[in-house]
């Protein structure tokens, strides 16, 4: 949370400097619209479920996870036609593939229709004694 507060503070200082410079060099630029700063309303971590299964097309989720690293962006895709759970939300790493689902019993799934930034926070396992890999997501819900 402290990192987010620091980021927002630094962004505000930068925007202030840009506005000041715009006023000095070109009075008409001072009113130019600057990009909207998005505020993170809430952040949380979420484990991914079903990583040990293969995808419907036969691709191994474990093989996909072996190519993933912390920081990889993630897309959350609702699957209303999922025969096992009409509220299922697939976890997809763009350019790599589907690595699993959000847990069925997570009450926060309904919040994920809001704008969000999702990335892999960590990859677990994949080592001697725990060969099966897993993933933990970092989810920022935006305003």
- Indicate the structural class: alpha+beta
Q: Could you describe the largest sheet, including whether it forms a barrel?
A: 3 strands, antiparallel
Count of DSSP-assigned helices: 2
* Low-confidence runs of at least 5 consecutive residues: 5-13, 15-31
Give the CATH level 1 class of the largest domain: Alpha Beta
- What is the radius of gyration computed over CA atoms, rounded to a whole number of angstroms? 20 Å
Q: Key terms for this structure?
A:
143 residues; alpha+beta; Alpha-Beta Plaits; 2 domains; three-stranded antiparallel β-sheet; 2 helices; 21% helix; 28% strand
Concise synopsis of the structure shown:
With 143 residues, the chain is an alpha+beta fold. The chain has helices at residues 2-25, 61-66, and strands at residues 40-47, 75-78, 89-93, 97-101, 116-124, 134-142. The chain folds into two domains: 1-37; 40-142, Alpha-Beta Plaits.
What does this structure look like?
The chain is an alpha+beta fold and about 140 residues long. It folds into two domains: about 35 residues; about 100 residues, Alpha-Beta Plaits, CATH 3.30.70.2330. The longest helix is centred in the N-terminal third of the chain and has 24 residues.
């Amino acid at each position: 949370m402290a990192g987010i507060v620091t980021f927002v503070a630094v962004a505000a200082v930068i925007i202030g400097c840009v506005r000041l410079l715009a006023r000095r060099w070109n009075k008409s630029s001072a009113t130019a619209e600057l990009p909207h700063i998005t505020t993170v309303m809430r952040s949380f971590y979420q484990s991914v479920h079903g990583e040990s299964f293969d995808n419907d097309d036969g691709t191994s989720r474990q093989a996909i996870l072996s190519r993933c690293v912390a920081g990889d962006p993630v897309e959350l895709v609702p699957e209303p036609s999922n025969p096992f759970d009409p509220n299922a939300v697939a976890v997809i790493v763009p350019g790599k593939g589907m690595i699993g689902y959000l847990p069925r019993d997570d009450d926060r799934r309904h919040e994920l229709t809001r704008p969000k930034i999702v990335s892999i926070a960590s990859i677990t396992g994949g080592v001697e004694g725990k060969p099966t890999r897993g993933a933990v997501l970092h989810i920022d819900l935006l305003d």
